[in-house]
Amino acid sequence: MFEPISIKEYVELFVRDNPSEKKQVVEERLRDILHAALSGTKCACGNPIWVIGAAEVGLSCFTCITGGTMPEEDFEIEEHLNYLQKLT
Ligand SMILES: [Zn+2]
Fold first, then answer.
1. Distance from C-alpha of 23 to C-alpha of 15, rounded to nearest angstrom
2. Which residue has the higher pLDDT, 1 or 52?
3. Helix 23-38 to helix 7-17 angle, to the nearest 10 degrees?
4. How far is the CA of 61 from the centre of ligand 1 (A)?
5. Helices then strands (H, E): number in the chain?
6. The model's pTM
7. What would the pLDDT profile of 22-73 be if each residue is shown by its tens digit?
8. How far apart are CA 82 and CA 14, in angstroms?
9. Is residue 83 classed as helix, strand or coil in its secondary structure?
10. DSSP state of 23
C-alpha cells in the first residue's frame, strides 16, 4: 500500500533530496500530473498512474515505473488516493 502524503509535504522532502530543484516547479509538475490522474488518465497498461513517479518519468503506474508489483512504503499524493478510494 502507498503512504499518503500531501503535495506540500512531498515537495519539502523532494527539494531536501534534490537541492537544485525549485519548490514551485516541483509543485506545479505534481499538480499537473495530479490533475491528469483526477481526470481519469491511466497508464498505458490500464492501471491508475502513480503521481509521484509520473512527475519524474511520465504518466505511468507504479508497476510500469519501478518494475515492482506492490508499493512498500512508497508515497502517493493523498488527494489521488482519496479519489481512487471513492471509485471502489
Ligand atoms: Zn502501467
1. 6
2. 52
3. 140
4. 4
5. 5, 2
6. 0.91
7. 999 999 999 999 999 999 999 999 999 999 999 999 999 999 999 987 888 8
8. 22
9. helix
10. H
Residues 15 and 31: beta-carbon distance below 8 Å = no
* Whole-number Å distance between alpha carbons of 21 and 13: 11
Count Cβ atoms below 10 Å from residue 68 Cβ, excluding itself. 10
Question: What is the structure's pLDDT at 75?
Answer: 96
The answer to whether the CB of 79 falls within 8 A of the CB of 4 is no
Ligand 1 centre from 37 Cα, in Å?
13
**Which one-letter DSSP state was computed for residue 7?**
H
Cross-strand bridge partners of residue 3: 75
Spacing, Cα 64 to ligand 1 middle (Å): 4
Using the mean position of ligand 1's atoms as its centre, give its distance from the Cα of residue 59 in Å.
Answer: 9
Residue 43, all three cell numbers: 497508464
Which helix (H) or strand (E) segment is 75 a member of?
Answer: strand 75-77
